[in-house]
């Protein structure tokens, strides 16, 4: 088969499968949004615990980050899906999202910790000297600045999280990758084409997302 | 007003404040001088509990502070502090810097806090900069905003830690002018400074510290013209010499 015919075939498959892949894309985005939304909350809490002077808090945060970064994501998703979900009757979508969130949360915690520690100590001291409590100073003075500085690495983590959401396929989520697998099983002769189509959707999402992050960075003047 | 008794502070094995006693009466200006590393900043930071001393007593407005039990946030509202490096909040404009604590801590309505803030900015000569961000200001302007920000909490005492040391020489005067004005209005102030002319003019007492100890507390005329302690005389001789050299080369 020449390149021309292959292209025609690929294009035909792309168009024909568009409705189902677009639906899968929506699920992928939902999974990613839930995972990263919860991941940001987890990251914030564990970043605060890690920098806390309370030894217990910082040890818990250390242990969490070590375990999550030291084990494969797919294992973590299976922990939630086979371990937690049946006991607490969590639907597959939330089991997958939670697995992804717990994973991304550990990385986001490190991003936030770096951001917080990059803010000069004088900021906290000035806030405290005005009578602000530690938590108020964190919320009003430190975190807004730290968050701004965290946007570039956070954008990076979001891209990783988006692509990692493909592992939700292994806990029955009919997202992009699962959809490609099913189509490929259906039409084994076109496996390569279907996986390429799934890849193209991810690529398109990543490109759009990177563009939005860059725009946000410029709007917020992150370098300053 | 403020009294420090037998204060001792260690950083690990380093004994930074040694049996420090200091008394500042209402409306007095005390200037703290001494070599680098002698513990001046640490003393100021202990007075508003940014650092915790290992032993000793601190009385603020006649009340002994118990740092383990008392609400230190409440105490810090009464004790304003101005830092060498300004420490303005860069993500907030000048007005927002000034009203932040009154609104968030004292729960003063934004409108009222804004009016008070604008009055303070006028006082430090920065009415036209209310909407500017710190990055758009000169060092002298930043420090004047920092003073307004501290005053917005209506503190009873102001602590200044080398407020002009990070400024270009031509900007020092505008900050000192604001501080002189404050002193005239009767603000109780403790000022760590190398500006000997300011100390001579404004201070009620000049305190000389060396290696964590208070060596001499005298009236400015006495300490500058006829210091009682040999160490004070030696220190002042060195400082005035370098000051003269600087003004000669400037
Ligand atoms: N957080 C800290 N940890 C350990 N040592 C410290 C700390 N802060 C200050 N020191 C030490 O305590 C001593 C007194 O420091 P301090 O900053 O009070 O001196 P200073 O008189 O303000 O000096 P300068 O004129 O340079 O500002 C110094 O030896 C300093 O190195
Ligand atoms: Mg100092």
Could you please describe the fold and organization of this structure?
- The complex is a heterodimer of chains A (224) and B (250).
- In chain A, helix 2 crosses helix 5 and helix 7 (134-164) packs antiparallel against helix 9.
- Chain A is built from nine helices and no strands.
- Chain A has helices spanning 3-16, 18-51, 55-70, 73-88, 92-117, 121-129, 134-164, 176-186, 191-220.
- In chain A, 83% of the residues lie in helices and 0% in strands.
- Chain A has a single domain, classed as MetI-like fold (Orthogonal Bundle), CATH 1.10.3720.
- Chain A is an all-alpha fold and 224 residues long.
- Chain B is 41% helix and 24% strand.
- Chain B is an alpha/beta fold.
- Chain B is built from nine helices and ten strands.
- The A-B interface holds A 120, 122-123, 125-133, 136, 140-141, 144-145, 148, 224 and B 48, 50, 73-74, 76-77, 79-81, 83, 85, 87-91, 100-101, 104-106, 135, 146, 149-150, 153.
- The complex binds adenosine-5'-triphosphate and magnesium ion.
């Amino acid at each position: 088969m020449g390149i021309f015919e292959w292209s025609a075939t690929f294009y035909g498959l792309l168009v024909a499968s568009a409705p189902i892949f677009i639906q899968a894309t929506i699920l992928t985005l939902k999974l990613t949004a839930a995972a990263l939304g919860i991941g940001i909350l987890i990251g914030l809490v564990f970043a605060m615990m890690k920098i806390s002077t309370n030894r217990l808090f910082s040890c818990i945060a250390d242990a969490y980050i070590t375990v999550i970064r030291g084990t494969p994501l797919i294992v973590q998703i299976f922990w939630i899906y086979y371990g937690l979900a049946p006991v607490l009757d969590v639907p597959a979508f939330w089991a997958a999202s939670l697995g992804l969130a717990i994973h991304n949360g550990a990385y986001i915690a490190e991003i936030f910790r770096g951001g917080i520690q990059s803010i000069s100590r004088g900021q906290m001291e000035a806030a405290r000297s005005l009578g602000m409590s530690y938590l108020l100073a964190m919320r009003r003075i430190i975190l807004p600045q730290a968050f701004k500085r965290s946007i570039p690495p956070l954008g990076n983590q979001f891209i990783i999280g988006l692509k990692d959401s493909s592992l939700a396929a292994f806990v029955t989520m009919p997202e992009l990758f699962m959809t490609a697998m099913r189509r490929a099983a259906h039409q084994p002769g076109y496996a390569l084409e279907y996986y390429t189509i799934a890849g193209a959707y991810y690529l398109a999402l990543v490109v759009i997302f990177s563009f939005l992050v860059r725009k946000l960075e410029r709007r917020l003047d992150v370098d300053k | 007003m403020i009294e420090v008794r037998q204060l001792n502070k260690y950083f690990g094995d380093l004994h930074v404040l040694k049996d420090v006693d200091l008394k500042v009466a209402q409306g007095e200006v005390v200037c703290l001088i001494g070599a680098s590393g002698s513990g001046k900043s640490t003393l100021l930071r202990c007075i508003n509990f940014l650092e915790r001393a290992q032993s000793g007593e601190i009385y603020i407005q006649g009340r002994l502070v118990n740092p383990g039990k008392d609400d230190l946030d409440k105490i810090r509202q009464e004790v304003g502090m101005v830092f060498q490096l300004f420490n303005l909040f860069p993500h907030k404009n000048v007005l927002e810097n000034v009203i932040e604590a009154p609104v968030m801590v004292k729960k003063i309505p934004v409108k009222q806090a804004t009016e008070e803030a604008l009055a303070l900015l006028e006082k430090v000569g920065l009415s036209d900069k209310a909407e500017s961000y710190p990055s758009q200001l000169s060092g002298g302007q930043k420090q004047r905003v920092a003073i307004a920000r501290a005053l917005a909490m209506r503190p009873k005492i102001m602590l200044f830690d080398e407020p002009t040391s990070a400024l270009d020489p031509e900007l020092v005067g505008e900050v000192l002018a604001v501080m002189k004005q404050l002193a005239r209005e009767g603000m109780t102030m403790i000022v760590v400074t190398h500006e000997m002319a300011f100390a001579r003019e404004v201070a009620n007492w000049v305190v000389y510290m060396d290696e964590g100890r208070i060596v001499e507390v005298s009236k400015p005329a006495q300490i500058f013209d006829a210091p009682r302690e040999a160490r004070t005389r030696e220190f002042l001789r060195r400082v005035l010499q370098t000051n003269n050299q600087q003004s000669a080369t400037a």
